[in-house]
Amino acid sequence: MSANNTSGLPQVSNRLAYNAMRHWKERLIEALLLAAAAVSVLTTLGIVYVLVSESVSFFSHVSIVDFLTDTQWTPLFDDAHFGIMVLISGTLVSSGVALLVAIPMGTIIAIYLSEFADSRVREAAKPILELLGGIPTIVFGYFALLVVTPILQAILPGLPGFSLLSAGLVMGIMIVPYIASLSEDAMRAVPMSMREGAYAMGSTKLYTALHVVVPAAISGLAASYILGISRAVGETMILAVAAGMQPNLTWNPMEPAATITSYIVQVALGDLPHGSIGYQTIFAAGLTLLLITLVFNILGQWLRAKFREAY
Amino acid sequence: MKPLTTEEIRSVIARGKFKDNLFKATGVFCLALALVVIVALIADMVIKGSERFTLDFFLNFASRRATQAGILSAWVGSLLVMLVTALAAVPLGVAAGLYLEEYAKRNWLTNIIEINITNLAAVPSIVYGLLALGIFVYQFGFGQSILSAGLTLALLILPIIIVSTREAIRAIPAMIREGSMAVGATRWQTCRYHILPYAMPGILTGVIIGLARAIGETAPIITIGALTFIAFLPPVPFTETGEGTAGLFDWVMSPFTVMPIQIFNWTSRPDPAFEVNAAAAGFVLMAMVLSMNAVAIYLRYKMRKNIKW
Known about the structure:
Helix content of chain B: over 70%
CATH superfamily of the largest domain in chain A: MetI-like
Strand content of chain B: under 5%
Number of helices of chain B: 11
CATH topology of the largest domain in chain A: MetI-like fold
Distance between the termini of chain A: 62 Å
Shape of chain B: flat
Structural class of chain B: mainly alpha
Low-confidence stretches of chain A: 1-5
Strand content of chain A: under 5%
Oligomer: heterodimer
Mean pLDDT of chain A: 87
CATH class of the largest domain in chain B: Mainly Alpha
Largest sheet of chain A: none
Order of helices and strands of chain B: HHHHHHHHHEEHH
CATH superfamily of the largest domain in chain B: MetI-like
Helix content of chain A: over 70%
Low-confidence stretches of chain B: none
Largest sheet of chain B: 2 strands, antiparallel
Number of strands of chain A: 0
Number of helices of chain A: 12
Number of strands of chain B: 2
Order of helices and strands of chain A: HHHHHHHHHHHH
CATH architecture of the largest domain in chain A: Orthogonal Bundle
Number of domains of chain B: 2
Mean pLDDT of chain B: 87
Structural class of chain A: mainly alpha
């Protein structure tokens, strides 16, 4: 400020002007940051908009009843059938196989790491699990088709070159780290005093783990299983590579079959014109997939709320 | 009840100990199985693919002849897509994380954003591909370009970056903010000069983990319609192409392929000669992903050692 400014008034107004500018700049930055945070909401709205709008035009050609009850899925043939159950069966069978591997294995590893292993083993095991969780799914697909399938064929003669079984097994291994690390976190959150109480009554470590720690952490375990189910249902590349892509209404894991996700890949690999009925089927399939994962997530939240134990 | 004899008590304890040890063995077995899978996977790719680890493999385009096919367009494509992904996802993710931790008031809007981010993390990646096909490829008219792919993967890893940013910011004690504001800094100045620099290692870890996830993603990129056979590179800025000088950003609109799609293409061919290529390319992709993860793990380790408030 200049020295001949005796009244002091301009000084004050300058400072106020500076403050006001500062205020506006702050508001602008806050608005920009809010806009960035809103992108995630826009993403969700975009997903719902795209899936629903394309599905609406799909369902103006195909009735919902046919979609849910037809036992054939031949959308690109002249005699077109749109029975989504065909794809859902493939998705459920492969996910079932994957979960039969991932849930026991993930839970055992979690109990072992949280209740039995000493800190050295735990420090060594964490990077192994992280590594396993970081392997790209296309590499797992390669592994399922070219390594696991030949091994399985040696054990189970008659297993075809593409099968839900080998894809599902490898998918299970892929999901193990997610279930193991979430379950372990849940069990380590159980207070030490509960274990000490059980030990004081003469329980063994295993008895304490299975009858005290697991029941106390059950809501966290359920959440990890639900995440595992979501991963299995949404997994794409392992199935596209190793399970074959022909639609097949089956509950037998020894057969090849298409899933919702591998059907979308198959169509995307071809050259379907924008706006054709074949193009719309992948959005109807995607909407079905999203609804299935949504149902499991709601179920998971309900389970968590129902069995939540607070200490 | 009859009291137990010493012998009986001993046998009860022995049985309990035996069960404990049995379970321990099962646990070690399950962990070992996970390790075996990783080792088998890497060993298989190294052994099968070893004959392709030559300079030519990295400098050749895809070819119909397995022995002459290479991954040039694939790794260049992967790097360029990652560049777009990082440029889009990092500013958006960090800004969103900063907003939620430092600015957001507890109201319904904040709640919606938080629930939304949790739910987005559970959406299957192929659904992002459908979103991108509908919005980026057709509505915005970006076509099947590097731009579409980069933006798709950016949306996919946004939740990872937001969550790690928030965790890193939350670890900074309140006294840092109070000190900054006490000397007259505004909220933004506090974030700009204190919060962001201190949170940077944590944010960086999240960014690297997110990019490592993105570089291995196949499904969403296939869904937007990436080509599997590309025998050219995107135009380099300011060089002569067939249609005149390429602009600075022409490459973002170029068709492309990426490593996972190249592997998928080679894996699904019936000719076993291409298996070798798939194995070699798979190993290169694994090496990229694992080295990124290793950097992230190292950063996290260093961070834990260095931080003393």
